[in-house]
Amino acid sequence: MIGSITSPYLFVNEVIMAIIEAFIFLYSYLFISNKREIIKNKKFISTLFLISFTLFSFWATLSFPAGYHTILIILFVSLSLALIANVKVFLSIVTIIFIGFLMIIIELMLFPFFSMITNTTMEQLQNIQEVKLHFSILVKSIELILLFIISKIKSPNIKYFSKELSHQVIIYWVFGMFLMGMLILSIQFVIYQPEKIILYETLIILIFLIYAIIGYLDYKVKINLIKIEKKYNIQYDYIKNLESLINIIRREKHDFSNHINTIYAMSTINKPNTVERIKEYLKNITNEIKNSYTTFNSGNDYIDGLLVVKSNHAYENNIIFDVNFESMLDKVRVDNVDLISIISNILDNAFEAIILSKETIERPIISLWTYIEEEKYIISISNNGPKIEDEILEKIFQNGFSTKERNSDDHGYGLYIVKKMIEKNDGKIILYSNKEETEFQIIFNLIGDKYELYSESF
Predict the structure, then answer these.
(1) Domain range summary for the chain, segments of one domain joined by +
(2) pLDDT on residue 442
(3) pLDDT tens per residue across span 356-369
(4) CA distance 279 to 163
(5) What does the UniProt keyword field contain (predicted)?
(6) pTM of the complete model
(7) Phi then psi for 7, rounded to 5 degrees?
(8) Which CATH architecture group holds 294-456?
(9) Among 370, 372, 333, residue whose Cα is nearest residue 451
(10) Higher-confidence residue: 65 or 20?
(11) Rounded-to-integer distance, Cα 234 and Cα 164, Å
């Protein structure tokens, strides 16, 4: 049983000293894990931890016997700081036990000195709030001095703390289950102290309110991380396209050297009609370069890079790549990352349909057209490969369905994921297929009223 709630000694012991102890736990933990920047970068969350630790410590003291409440406080601090610092739960528990062990050693070392000066026994320390307060002030003062000293020291570089968790939501879920379990277990202890039920309920509400706030803040961090990851993916795709372009340029540089050597040899030999033959040779080279390398202006730089790579791929496989932008892609309401994935996947399917076709296609063509119709933005990607059978048409967008061999790396998720990305952006996809043509028609909402014309065919 604890003394009166209105006792000033009790208030200082259970509230003020708890806040100081929470700060010691927080700073020591972040020092060991080499993440002290969290205190500066996440001041609000750090403050929430101090408040939640104080409330939880008081609640545990109110609801559980001394031995149990110490274990529960260790678990609470371990889970809280694991969530804040993004550290594995087991590693967090070991760290908190280590810090707690050091704090106990400090208390045991200071008690003989305190007892000699104040002539106090251990029993008095446990039962008299005033004596407990004086000893707490001594202990926390020494601990804060030690904390100040280590603040001037560089944190240890422990490799286990450098590994970021990819599923931090699990810690938040475990933390919530822990609090729920605490609530259930504490009921039997509070039932025998009905005079404290209002205080108990107030503490419960405050603790779960803080838990909800931490969850909301963690959710906002996750959303920002997702946005950063999307930007990274766009850059990654763009870099891949640039690498492909560099490889094309390197190959063409090698070809240019061969062409120059050939022209030089023709000039040196100086046979009849040499000038006309060199002109014809250069004309053929010019046409070849024009067909193999084409630039685009789609209104989206990332798509432009993608189309350059696809056009070169088409040239290498003797496929006509017909691109016609009646309206720029900056008019369509769709996420950039999703747009790249959608167009890239469907173009890849079109190339595979023609290249892997068992039928002979006299004039293989892949087309990408965009236009506005009935206030909707249409992206049409078509090819003149084999007709898709009706039974396949009904299943082609299903999860796991694939027309490829079982040992293929593709497991039938490509078009399913494409459909999901289109729907996520409030669009829809329609597939038409007959003997002459297979067309994927993607329909999105517009974000503007401008209507520009651009056409590029080759």
Answers:
(1) 8-232, 294-456
(2) 94
(3) 888 888 889 999 99
(4) 63
(5) Kinase, Membrane, Phosphoprotein, Transferase, Transmembrane, Transmembrane helix, Two-component regulatory system
(6) 0.48
(7) -65, 130
(8) 2-Layer Sandwich (3.30)
(9) 372
(10) 20
(11) 23
